[in-house]
């Protein structure tokens, strides 16, 4: 399943390495070198160019991040000695805007996920090294120690916590995309779906949730029509032509669609979000490391520094993801239950 499908699976991992090195690691030729914007100046401040080469998926924003000595001191000695934070992305083969994809220069790995990794690396005073792999190979990299941390839209689950440590940094949300002219809103209540026609991806977590709501409404004598389309273009055409009320999908994907449709004759908007973990638990996206490697706490502390000092909010706003903000980063927070994995 692709990153654009909200499922109870983790994101992907990347490294900013020369192509030859990436190939030697058994990853992919889709790699890029560290941006000069990620080099700290003489005062220890790094200017991270968020959204660079994003081809409209983000508002390019330069964000200044100081090295924080107290947080840097928490890092494992092996990471400190390397001088690098190796960040994994699992965006092969095609990537998924706005999360992780190859930029408009055909080489830069850009997106919200590599950019939050670069911001964290700046707090540590380390050089970000980003590598792109398939979803499965992202975890192989973490397991083997080639990759320090995965920042790749990875959902925190109970099952994954058996093998990995987590530091949360975004809510894991689904959302409803409607035409901007539509008056319909989800408002957090599935009963508002009565009488509506909604498109969803087959085999996804959001389909499971939508079909459950359909069943509940049917028991009340109400209808909810669920539609399936072969690809996203067909779904967007159905939305713009009024064949469906809404598209129910991953919130980041919808945030991207909204930015792309903004200047068209049929702009869209977000009509409400819902936790990817269901009604009883707020799903969380988290930085993912090998269990017991000592990185989870400094990662959470770095993310919390960015939250407290405003860089985090600027990063989310650049990618139109402010509605997925967390108040604080937590180490191994409650994950998606095994019963719903």
From TrEMBL:
<protein>
    <submittedName>
        <fullName>Transporter substrate-binding domain-containing protein</fullName>
    </submittedName>
</protein>
<feature type="domain" description="Solute-binding protein family 3/N-terminal">
    <location>
        <begin position="91"/>
        <end position="319"/>
    </location>
</feature>
<dbReference type="Pfam" id="PF00497">
    <property type="entry name" value="SBP_bac_3"/>
</dbReference>
<dbReference type="InterPro" id="IPR001638">
    <property type="entry name" value="Solute-binding_3/MltF_N"/>
</dbReference>
<keyword id="KW-0732">Signal</keyword>
<feature type="signal peptide">
    <location>
        <begin position="1"/>
        <end position="37"/>
    </location>
</feature>
């Amino acid at each position: 399943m692709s990153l654009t499908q909200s499922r109870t699976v983790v994101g992907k991992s990347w490294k900013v390495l020369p192509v030859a090195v990436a190939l030697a690691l058994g990853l992919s030729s889709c790699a890029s070198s560290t941006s000069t914007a990620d080099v700290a100046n003489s005062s220890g401040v790094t200017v991270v160019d968020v959204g660079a080469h994003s081809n409209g998926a983000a508002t390019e924003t330069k964000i200044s991040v100081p090295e924080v000595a107290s947080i840097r001191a928490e890092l494992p000695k092996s990471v400190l000695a390397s001088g690098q934070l190796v960040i994994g992305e699992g965006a092969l083969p095609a990537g998924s805007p706005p999360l992780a994809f190859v930029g408009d220069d055909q080489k830069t790995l850009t997106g919200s996920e590599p950019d939050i990794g670069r911001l964290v690396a700046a707090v540590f005073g380390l050089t970000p090294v980003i590598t792109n792999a398939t979803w499965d190979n992202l975890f192989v990299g973490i397991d083997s120690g080639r990759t320090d941390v995965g920042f790749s839209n990875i959902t925190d689950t109970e099952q994954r916590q058996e093998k990995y440590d987590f530091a949360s940094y975004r809510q894991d949300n689904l959302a409803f995309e409607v035409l901007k002219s539509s008056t319909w809103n989800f408002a957090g209540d599935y009963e508002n779906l009565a009488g509506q026609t909604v498109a969803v991806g087959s085999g996804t977590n959001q389909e499971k949730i939508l079909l459950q709501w359909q069943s509940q409404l049917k028991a009340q004598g109400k209808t909810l029509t669920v539609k399936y389309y072969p690809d996203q273009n067909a779904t967007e055409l159905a939305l713009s032509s009024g064949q469906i009320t809404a598209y129910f999908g991953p919130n980041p994907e919808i945030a991207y669609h909204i930015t792309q449709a903004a200047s068209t004759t049929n702009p869209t908007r977000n009509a409400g979000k819902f936790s990817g973990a269901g009604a009883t638990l707020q799903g969380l996206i988290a930085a993912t490391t090998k269990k017991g490697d000592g990185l989870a706490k400094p990662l959470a502390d770095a993310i919390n520094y960015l939250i407290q000092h405003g860089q985090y909010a600027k990063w989310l706003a650049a990618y139109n993801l402010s509605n997925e903000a967390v108040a604080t980063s937590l180490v191994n927070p409650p994950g998606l239950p095994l019963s719903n994995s």
